[in-house]
Write a structure and sequence with these properties.
Distance between the termini: 44 Å
Structural class: mainly alpha
Strand order of the largest sheet: 1-2
Shape: elongated
Helix content: over 70%
Radius of gyration: 24 Å
Number of strands: 2
Number of domains: 2
Number of helices: 10
Largest sheet: 2 strands, parallel
Oligomer: single chain
């Protein structure tokens, strides 16, 4: 992936053209999905799609004037810093609130991209165009914020800026949750394999401690290097990496700590294993709840992904250790 700071003006325009075309198609998908349930909102998305289409033509004209007809094959996915979003626009009958959240994120990201690109542009005409598009995307963002305000009773809506609340989730909750999930699930197999292979609490604890710290370091670096925050507004990559790494380690240590029960106790191994199993049960259900609460994942789907997946990993660890 290429860093945003390393993009030339030609590449910036090419990315913008590709992004506007994709966003226009996404808005048309939302319009088709909503036309039977919320016809007024569907018309709004059709208008937004047309505006994005117009932005694309403006960018194409500027590009052809400066660089000719050939566009380099570069998209948002090739640039470090753009959010990696779930393609929810492929899902039918989405709740209007879920669509609003996605649009807010899209437009917030587009506004930051154009504002950052305008700051770096040397050509005055390109800088002016990118600045105008940043303002236009900000208008779309405000439209998205108000989208469900009229339909879902504005008197019960909080006055806070929901876009920034969404960014808070992306900055802290998402990397923390990703770490907690990885630490809780990925350490199950080595921990319980060591437990049933040795029936020794201290050795098992050392394996769990090593697995937890190792996973924390790995996940921390992966998160820090995945997004520099320049376009997404997700904050310092190292702060997100630290959050992810710490939560990964804590996720593994939760069910590792019971193996501190001294081996000298009667039935020490089974006592520690029973406590660890209870901890695992509550960990997996807590993760499923957080995922459903903050990441817009249906609760039953979250339970299926986390609880069932964790149970399978746990079973694999026990089978390997007991072999």
């Amino acid at each position: 992936m290429k860093s945003f700071a390393d993009l030339s003006e030609r590449e910036v325009l090419a990315v913008a053209i590709s992004a506007e075309e994709e966003d226009s198609r996404i808005y048309m998908s939302f319009a088709e999905d909503l036309k039977d349930r919320y016809p007024d909102s569907a018309k709004l998305f059709e208008e937004m799609a047309e505006q994005e289409h117009g932005h694309r033509h403006m960018l194409l004209e500027m590009y052809e004037q400066r660089f000719g007809p050939h566009l380099p094959p570069i998209r948002r996915e090739d640039v470090k810093g753009f959010l990696r979003r779930r393609p929810i626009w492929l899902t039918k009958n989405l709740p209007l609130d879920a669509i609003r959240k996605e649009v807010e994120t899209m437009e917030f990201e587009a506004e930051r991209f154009y504002a950052k690109a305008a700051e770096r542009a040397k050509d005055i005409n390109i800088r002016r165009l990118l600045g105008d598009l940043a303002e236009a995307e900000k208008g779309h963002e405000h439209t998205a914020v108000k989208l469900t305000g009229e339909i879902l009773k504005p008197d019960v809506r909080a006055e806070e800026d929901r876009t920034h609340r969404r960014m808070f989730v992306l900055q802290y909750v998402q990397p923390g949750l990703a770490g907690l999930m990885d630490g809780s699930v990925s350490t199950l197999a080595p921990l319980f394999a060591a437990a049933f292979a040795t029936h020794q609490n201290w050795q098992t604890f050392l394996v769990g401690l090593a697995a937890s710290i190792g996973a924390g370091i790995s996940m921390g670096f992966a998160e820090a290097l995945s997004d520099d925050g320049s376009l997404t507004g997700r904050g310092s990559p190292w702060l997100r990496g630290l959050t992810c790494g710490v939560m990964t380690t804590l996720g593994g240590l939760g069910h590792t700590a019971p193996y501190l029960v001294p081996d000298s106790w009667p039935n020490a191994f089974w006592i520690a294993t029973a406590i660890a199993s209870v901890v695992v049960f509550f960990e997996l259900w807590a993760i499923a709840y957080i995922r459903a609460r903050y990441m817009d994942t249906p609760f039953l789907q979250a339970v299926f992904q986390i609880v069932l997946g964790g149970a399978i990993v746990l079973g694999v660890g026990i089978l390997i250790g007991a072999a």
